Amino acid sequence: MARRSKIVSSTLITGALLLTSLGLGGIAMSAETPAAKSAGGGVTAAHAAQPGHAAQPGHAAHAGHAAHAGHAAQPGHAMAASAASSPEDPDGDGYIPANPPVTGVTPSTKEPPHRYFHEFQANCSVSHTKADDPIVYPQRPGASHDHTFMGNTTTDAASTTASLDAGRTTCKAPGDKSGYWMPTLFNGDKPVLPIGPQTIYYKAGVTDYTSVRPFPKGLRFVVGDPAQTAEEFRRHPGFVEGWECGDSYFNVAFPKDCPSRPEVQLNIRFQAPSCWDGKYLDTPDHRSHMAYPVVNPGTNNNVCPADHPVALPMVEFKMAFPVNGDLSRARLASGPSWSFHYDFFNAWDAPTLKALVDHCVVGALQCDARGYDQTHPEAGAALDENYELP
């Protein structure tokens, strides 16, 4: 596969994560035609001290991402366990069970016919900014660092699956009422917000793309870590090409000299874990119910680990920030450039998401937000001209 979209096999050891924290956020990508390059994962800073952050089972490395020994203990990071009850977590223990859970699944080791692409896009614009985080700080408005929100226009500290389901969206597909958010980027004291629809890829993270199923309604997680070091950011399994500007790629820090040409923007790509334990929609650390694919021993294939056997779409955000030139004063609301992370809260209309996953991911196509692959017009589209089910 292309170097930006291929997941390179490697064996990863997960380190124990003992944390204390700072903020949460999400990421998105500039809208691209499906024929354009594609590929793909973050967590928070500015969050108060939070109970232990469980380690994720095995991680697979991605294109341009060297094999690593997992994430070592990360001082200063703590994903906030829900200290207070919320409508979806009445006892406040941080666990939200899936209802029903997914049982009886074993990781697929099948090798379907090779296909270069198996993905679709969600094109969503920025809706608002706010110092809220309904995953890490549910029911606690203003407790987080500033976030840039995309998708659902109602996302705030009080958001639940039901409230998002009743909201509106900036995504092209009206059925995508999910919340996507990330720490706000500042250039000096000026916030820099992405303009227009951003691209959020949904793709297969495992070799057997036919085993991928839709996200369960209400699933939420944090990708990355706001308290990670620069090296941990570079070695994160979701790292694709780091911060990009002009012809400069694989940057951990913001490029200091970004070409001052009108078409040049600051970009980042990051992939999320795509293997689910089938038991919880959220856990106290907002991460341990999800895991990255691992390498099937004796092969070059990516499979889900045994304790996270359910293959879901791999979300990959690419965010395009309209800023260039001198970036010496650029920073994230969560801290330095390597504190980048993002959050995802699934509120898709279930039939719409299933249609896109089945047609594009399982069907091995390179689809746009309608579920249409321009290189395979004979396959048709999953959605109509209004981005709705026919």
Describe it.
- With 390 residues, this protein is mainly beta.
- The chain has helices at 161-165, 230-235, 350-362; strands at residues 96-97, 119-124, 126-130, 147-151, 179-183, 185-187, 190-192, 198-203, 220-224, 239-245, 248-251, 257-258, 266-271, 275-276, 280-282, 290-291, 294-295, 302-303, 310-311, 314-321, 325-326, 330-332, 341-345.
- It has 3 helices and 23 strands.
- Strands 2-8-20-13-10-11 form a 6-stranded antiparallel β-sheet.
- It starts with 95 loop residues before the first strand and ends in a 28-residue tail after the last helix.
- The model is unreliable at 1-82 (pLDDT under 50).
- Residues 37-114 are annotated as: Disordered.
- This is DUF1996 domain-containing protein.
- It holds the Pfam family DUF1996.
- Residues 133-348 form the DUF1996 domain.
Write the layout of secondary structure elements.
Elements: E1 96-97, E2 119-124, E3 126-130, E4 147-151, H1 161-165, E5 179-183, E6 185-187, E7 190-192, E8 198-203, E9 220-224, H2 230-235, E10 239-245, E11 248-251, E12 257-258, E13 266-271, E14 275-276, E15 280-282, E16 290-291, E17 294-295, E18 302-303, E19 310-311, E20 314-321, E21 325-326, E22 330-332, E23 341-345, H3 350-362
Antiparallel strand pairs: 1-15, 2-8, 3-4, 4-5, 5-23, 6-7, 6-22, 8-20, 9-23, 10-11, 10-13, 12-21, 13-20, 14-16, 14-19, 17-18
